[in-house]
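Think of the structure tokens as a kind of shorthand, similar to the way a musician reads notation: each symbol stands for something richer, in this case the local conformation of the backbone. In the example below we present two proteins back to back. Begin with the first one, reading the sequence and then the tokens, and try to describe in your own words what changes along the chain.
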Amino acid sequence: MKFTLTNENKVAMGGKAHLKEVQIEVTNQQKSIKINLVLFIPNEGTGPAPAFVLINHRGKDNTDPTRTTKSDFWPAELLIDAGFAIAAFHVSDVAADNKDTFQNGVLQRLYPEQLDMDNGMRALGAWGWGASRVMDYLQQDMQIAKNKVAVIGHSRGGKAALWCGAQDQQFAVVVSSCSGNGGSSLSRRRYSE
């Protein structure tokens, strides 16, 4: 793996946050993929910040690093004000959110054998794998509290967050919002989710 800082603003959000945009390049058998990480770290605080990592399966504008577009889906300013770092990557960097083309990312490029396995990785597994690669970066960033990182996701992203947390013990917490059937839906209720 290779980490490249592609953009940095130490006074983002009106001076409240340190923005880092990092390209995470993962190579296997001379083929690679690139995951684009957006990370805001609070400038206030006395030490490394706890962090949330969002598996973003909505539009990339939801995690706009310029903060021109602000989304309730990724309340970066709210978390920065509370002393948390907030990170996100878009699922399309690892596997498309499409049943016909999901295999065109990490699966075909790095792990094609998974596609032939009955229980091999598919899109949600690839998204969780991507969150683990983000965690690999966070583990070496001195501004992040390495043992206080949560992975979060909503709907299909929530399922991927659950899978990621089950596979990667480096995450302290999993926050799975509305992951529904195949996720964390109630097991003893006969209506809705």
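Once you have a description of the first chain, move to the second and do the same.
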Amino acid sequence: MITAIVQAIDSNSVAAPASGAPTDRSARTIAAVIGRLITAGTIESGAKLPTVRQLSKQLGVSPTTVSEAWRGLAAAGAIETRGRNGTFVRSSGMPGTQLRYRRISAGSGQYELDLSSGIPDVELLPVLGPIVARVSRQSLTSSYLDNPVLPELAERLAADWPFETESLTVVDGALDALDRVGQIVLRLGDRVVVEDPCFPPMLDLLDRLGCEVIGVPLDDDGIELDGLRAALELDPAALIVQPRAQNPSSRAMSRRRAAAIAKLLAERRVTVIEDDHANDISSAPLVSLGSHLPERTIHIRSFSKSHGPDLRLAAVGGAGEIVQSLNTRRMLGPGWSSRILQAVLLELLDDPGTAEVLEHARSVYAARRRLISTRLTDAGIEHPNGDGINLWMTVDNEQSALLSLASRGIGAAPGTPFIVSAASDVAHLRVTAGLVPDARLGEIADRLVEAALTEHANSGQR
């Protein structure tokens, strides 16, 4: 196959072979030629492609050039990576891999009380009416040439950033930020270290980017050091962490653990990507690796769960080269996030009433979680300590627990899509405890205990 690819690239040259002119072996040309070979059937559907190093050696180009070509083909849906098994031509008749996030949202809307969603309680969000009214009186006319971020908002965000940021921008939510940053710093086949368990859409995203995911377990202080140390020996390109209210475990990274992680990363070229999705509804203090490694940390702060999901806004700040690359690439697409919505967010951040609303929300979420946690502990059901709106609980059997809750009109998220490594045989559910109405807390807690202890029909032990 390598010979066929090299010959096709050589014959693709604009100059005649006898002219002595160099053959075009750019990433774009390599991708285009291989794409045509796949379309023509010369490289068959399902075929395993050469490794990046094998092809780069034969073509006399750098591995980075071939990796870029592979990435373009993957983005076009022509090829797919299967981790250490290699890269393959995607089978045209084969249905796409089921996305993890669809497995946690499959029953959405079917239950009287849906605790699978991971969304905030709308009753605890700031009221936008007065804010929007104030914004509507402002001059909202702007130009394509204006700064993508309102200067006043940029100043307000920078003043509250967890470390001194080289550059800052605003995008359409945390996942949009993760996607855009990932496209800049990651290449096809790159290894990425994540927390295990991890947020399913993040895993789906890394899969679509063609990355190999390395999961590292968590303890009460954050990502475990021994596991991280072992993962770093595999030369990952990035480490993605959720510094507080980790989804799904709800754990937070301690300052001591952050310092230890930064020490491990000090001599390695690893980009740190932090996803602070919970923001101000988390009771835990924000601990950022950017305070130790500001030049290669990208911090993402979402306002969806705290200020309103339909604001669709998240701030991205940190390593200046990455943020500026994000802004430049974005000008070829949406350009910027609505400055009208940015004006609404700025009003919210400056309004004293917003702080009171957020303080109340934190208190209510903590109280709901605390009551449910107490019932689970009394029943001997393991679950991590933490905060935020989600609760990660062990169950005897995932499917039986889900059915038990469904029979009571309650939805929960299965734990399997959150798990990175298949090493653990402990079953879990993720429950959005923050959505349980106060009047039903005791009842729902009892239902969760009952579901956790429901054994599979064929199981004789817990």
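Compare your description with these statements about the second chain. Residues 14-21, 457-462 have pLDDT under 50 and may be disordered.
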